[in-house]
Amino acid sequence: YATTGLRWKKSDLTWSIQNYPSLPPLLQPNNVRTIMAYAFKAWSDVTNLKFHATSSSEQDRADIKISFARSLHDDGYPFDGKGGTLAHAFFPGEADIAGDTHFDDEESWTYLDDSGTDLFAVAVHEFGHALGLSHSSSHPSIMRPYYQGPVGDIASYTLPEDDRYAIQSLYGRKSSLSTPSPNHPTTHLPKPPSPPRPKVPSQPDPSAQNRCEGGFEAVANIRGEVFFFKGQYFWRIQRTGSLVSFHPALIKNFWIGLPPGTNKIDAVYERKTDSRIIFFIGSQYWVFKDTVAVSGYPRPLSDWGLISHDGSEVKRVDAAFVWAHNGKTYIFSGGEFWRFSEGLESGRRRPDAGYPRNSSLWKGAPSNPDDIITWSDGDAYFFKDNSYWILKSGGLDQDNVIHKSTAVDWMMCPKPTPTTRPTNPRHRGECNCGLNGA
Amino acid sequence: PMPDQYSRGVDWLSRYGYLPPPDPRTGKLQTKEGIERAIKEMQRFAGLKDTGKLDSDTLKLLNTPRCSLPDIIGSEDMLKKRRRKRR
User: Fold this and answer.
1) CB contact under 8 A, B69 and A135
2) Which of A324, A329, A350 is nearest to A339 (CA)?
3) With a cut of 0.85, is the ipTM above it?
4) Which residues in A178-209 are b (16+ Cβ under 10 Å) and which e?
5) Which residues of A touch B65 (CB under 8 A)?
6) Strand order of the sheet with strand A387-391?
7) Beta strand A64-69 with A101-104: parallel, antiparallel or unpaired?
């Protein structure tokens, strides 16, 4: 552990909450107060420190003032929106700001629920700073600088050994003979709140559970974020790689103008020329300006002039993306692909000469991908089932394209437990290997 | 890593105390060796293999949500805080 050398010169400390989270799931003020009280208790359980919540009239005089703030908030540590930095606290001292603890109000604060950031875990960490502790490299330690997820039941939480030693090095061990003061909050802490429940609990939402199962029908890089579409829902991943929420959003609530009952999107891409977003569903396509469909759509897929080698007209698109390597738009369907040099035209268009070509030209990637995006440094990412393949920028003919797990790398799912590999790879159905049987 | 990742990495290392902040008076550049040392220190602190390179595990960690306070707090940081408090 590491300490700053700064400590409170008193053992009775007061705290107050200046404001409350403003983003969903909107923890109720009484729940926030309870979570904070238990987070202080984690430190007072092992020392003789005592923490008291101030009355509302004295909240500005508290030693540790807790607030939820956004972006620049006049302390030299601006917040950066969802993800990134979560919170900070000032070390003990005589200054007015000493001990103050700020949480980024643009996080989805929650508890015992993996849909957001666990307020209790972060509060315990930040109060460690407010009491004089620095970041620890030890594992396990609540003072590790990185968010480590929920820490479980707040009423039974105890500090890891490293943190216990750290705080006791500053304030000593809890004296077993000490008598709690009458207003010691640990004697009348309220019952811990229950984890928040969905507001519309009519039916269990199966799609909320199967983020880790893959099978995304469409994947698109839109304005630098990656959208994974599945059924009626989509998940969204920020530029930083952070999943906005483990819970999916309803497509119809975000993308306004798709037909009611839309339960499968074949492919989506953002047009390079004008940043319009194109949705392919069955034999039609829609053009969106931002999140609203442009009038005049849907139009028939036949506008695109997608004629297969056998002369038949394509009835459905598998994948669509703009390849950063050359700025061209590619449409995949039935093992073939077409290239377009798009302008600002609407209505009928024609693929570049010489197309379609066989999808197998994209060596190492599945020939019938669910969808494709350009991501990172211009590489092409092919998605299929629960895997993805990266074709390095500009490369069609690459050896050893290794597939990776969409669930683990994109959806923040745990790595699967290794299973015993079948000794005979010809046992189809038992094979645990990649899609292309490598 | 691409240049963008590299500059973001250097920014991250400065922000969390592994590299001295750039000096606006001299515009002094960080040295390649200094950056490698800082990456190694960050990797050791985080429990990663200390390769000194912005490898995939390190880049992933750079994108992990975290506390805003630096991991390495030098005397410079403490002085800065006191000055800020006085203002």
Assistant:
1) yes
2) A329
3) no
4) eeeeeebbeeeeeebbeebeeeeeeeebebee
5) 83-86, 107, 117, 146-147, 242
6) A371-375, A379-384, A387-391, A403-405
7) parallel
Contacts of A240 in chain B (CB under 8 A): 63
User: B54-73 b/e with 16+ CB inside 10 Å = b?
Assistant: beeebbebbbbbbbbbbbbb
DSSP A371-403: EEEEETTTEEEEEETTEEEEE-TT-SB-S---E
Cα–Cα distance for residue pair B69/A119, rounded to 1 Å? 17
Rounded distance between C-alpha atoms, residue A3 and residue B15, angstroms: 19
Residue type, A154: I
A102 → chain B, closest CA residue: B68
| H/E element, A352 | none
- Averaged over successive runs of 10 residues, the pLDDT of chain A (438 residues) comes to 92 95 82 93 96 88 96 90 93 94 94 82 97 94 93 88 95 70 50 55 47 91 89 83 76 85 92 89 92 89 92 93 90 95 70 92 90 86 93 70 87 68 39 37
- The widest CA-to-CA distance across chain B, in whole angstroms, is 42
pLDDT tens readout for residues B15-73 = 999 988 766 666 556 778 888 999 999 999 999 999 999 998 999 899 899 999 999 98
For B71, which residue in chain A has the nearest alpha carbon? A135
A106 is catalytic: no
H or E stretch covering B24: none
**Residues B66, A85: C-beta atoms closer than 8 Å:** yes
Which helix (H) or strand (E) segment is A343 a member of?
none
What are the start-end ranges of the H helices in A265-391? none
The owner of tokens 């669509």 is A320
Tokens of A165: 């030693």
User: Hey, what are A408's tokens?
Assistant: 């683990």
What residues in B contact A75, CB-CB < 8 Å?
A: 84
Test mutation, B63, B68, B77, chain A, max A CBs within 10 A: B68
Give the residue from chain B lying closest to A78, CA to CA.
B68
Q: Between residues 21 and 50 of chain B, which touch chain A (CB distance below 8 Å)?
A: 44-47
**Residue that the structure tokens 């745990």 belong to:** A414
Query: Which residue among A76, A93, A145 places its CB closest to the CB of B67?
Result: A145
Spatial CB neighbours of A293, under 8 Å, sequence gap ≥ 6: A255, A256, A257, A258, A286, A287
Taking an 8 Å cut-off on Cβ atoms, the answer to whether A137 and B69 are in contact is no
